[in-house]
Amino acid sequence: MEKLVMTDGKRRRGLAAAAAVLSSVLVLSACSGDGEDKGGDDKGGKQSQQQVDKAAAEKASKARIAIAPKNGATNASINNAGKVTVTEGTLTEVTLTTADGTAVKGTLAADAKSWKPDAQLERSTSYKLAVKAKDDAGLTAHENSSFTTVAPGNSFIGNFTPEANSTVGVGMPVSINFNKPIADQKAVQSAITVSSSSGQEVVGHWFNSQRLDFRPEQYWKENSTVTLKLALDGVEGAPGVVGVQQKTVKFTVGRNQVSVVDAASKTMKVQQDGKTIRTIPISAGAPATPTYNGQMVISEKFKETRMNGATVGFTDANGKGEYDIKDVPHAMRLSTSGTFIHGSYWGKGVFGNSNTSHGCVGLEDVQGANDPSKPGAWFYDNSLLGDVVIVKNSKDKTIAPDNGLNGWNMDWAQWKQGSKV
């Protein structure tokens, strides 16, 4: 039989082919993982890995935890941040702490599906959340997050009058003074609603970039309830400056009391529901310093207070106040510029006879504010914040609508022109 003889060229090609096969086997062995014999081919190895992954997934909790805001958020809401919810499970542990480890109290819902802080968070503060939940099989899920609340420099608030749950007179507007200028007045006003149980239409009016008042066309209906809703959280009032308030407050309107001061006759008629219940002698502003005319709203009450002329521009040649009375009894503010209706123990014989004040309306009273029978005390005791005092027949002009809570001196058409919505 003829022998098959391999030449050197064929020998080299054969060795190269064998090497290539061996190389591919080694490569496949390396890709299989740990190099051990799995007792199966390539296809079998892949199936085994899939089975491992599936087994691990089956052991993971189905509970899905959601945290607001997202992890790492800055300028977070002080009202809504730190809220936690879970689906396909229940919450078992929620811990909210500040950067220094101080715990923030919160409440878990009865169904253990949600948790939220008990109180408004602090501004410009970093918080951390650690959350645990479990699914129906008892498997645990974890979630951790952190966020920083909005800084004072990037936020605004509105200080409002009247106070929540107070009882006020029929003239009390809702007056909001913002601590920063508002550039987008439409956006801010749109996030504020004022309504009355009387059904009266209520409209807002911007006096300037930081003051927004609301009122109806006529005085509030007596015994009605007024509701103020502030939904300012996250509303951008100016570039980079957002609101942080989210609250609803209510106040009650009491009886309808309007008092009419006649500077010419030097009397004041106190009226309730249009009927005069008492006529009181008064002393209004002297000819050189007359009292403003117009509708004025009582905005503050002081059983006793100090009145210094220097604070409102009445000074002598030495720059000292023309008067400085440290115990004015039963004083009630009617304007920001310093108009009061108050008791007077120093104006002997002037009430009902002459106008002698620096622009205020004076009523007979005693030093110490301790005689309830005097007109000053009676009027103080029977007045509410928000009651209206109308001055007529004075030699001065009508008070400016923004000088105090006195927007009633603007007609309804003008008032509505100041609304941005």
Automatic annotation (TrEMBL):
Keywords: Acyltransferase, Cell shape, Cell wall biogenesis/degradation, Peptidoglycan synthesis, Transferase. The active site is at 342 (proton donor/acceptor), 360 (nucleophile). Pathway: Cell wall biogenesis; peptidoglycan biosynthesis. Residues 34-58 are annotated as: Disordered. SUPFAM superfamilies: L,D-transpeptidase catalytic domain-like. Residues 257-392 form the L,D-TPase catalytic domain. It comes from the Bacteria. The keyword Nucleotide-binding does not apply. This is Ig-like domain-containing protein.
